[in-house]
Design goal:
Helices cover 4% and strands 57% of the residues. It is mainly β. The protein has a single domain, classed as Lipocalin, CATH 2.40.128.110. It has an eight-stranded antiparallel β-barrel.
């Protein structure tokens, strides 16, 4: 079994959501961890675990970030992390479907991530790295993120659909099978 850990310097965990239904707000998490175990070259036996520190959330607007961390949204005092545990990885056409359980605010629900494997290479330090891109769409209301206000024309301030956009490098650990 090979073990891989995320390379946080070459990985991004982001999201996009509509504002007033006319523009898109982008955010990301600055602190996260991930681990993958797999013995197959196609990763279809992979077990993946991921955790993001919600206090590291940034939309580049400090007042908005503060509000997102408040009880109106993520309630980081009570729920400081978001986590994901895979349940199945399937090779579909030229990509992957990663099925798993996403936990936000103590609520765990299944999601499907659509993914691509971009290949692997060895960096200047002799580490073998593997690149992946994953995307999904979730309903924030399913996880109790229901705060909203009306816009001036009766539209909602914040959309319900959240696009998850993940680009990661995983580092194969040296003390595992090749």
């Amino acid at each position: 079994m090979r073990t891989f850990i995320i390379d946080p310097l070459h990985s991004e965990i982001g999201f996009k959501i509509k504002h007033l239904m006319i523009s898109t707000v982008t955010g990301s998490f600055g602190k996260f961890n991930a681990k993958m175990e797999s013995s197959l070259d196609d990763f279809t036996d992979a077990k993946i675990s991921f955790t993001a520190d919600v206090n590291s959330l940034s939309t580049n607007i400090s007042d908005r970030d503060f509000h997102l961390k408040s009880p109106d949204f993520f309630d980081t005092e009570r729920f400081p992390n978001i986590s994901f545990e895979s349940t199945k990885v399937e090779n579909i056409d030229k990509g992957y479907e990663v099925l798993g359980d996403l936990t936000i605010k103590g609520i765990t629900l299944p999601i499907k991530l659509n993914g691509l494997y971009n290949g692997n290479d060895v960096d200047a330090y002799g580490q073998t790295k593997y690149g992946f891109e994953l995307e999904s769409k979730i309903s924030r209301k399913d996880w109790g993120l229901t705060f909203n206000l009306e816009g001036g024309k009766g539209s909602l301030l914040i959309g319900d659909e959240v696009r998850l956009i993940i680009s990661i490098q995983m580092i194969q650990q040296q003390n595992t099978e090749q």
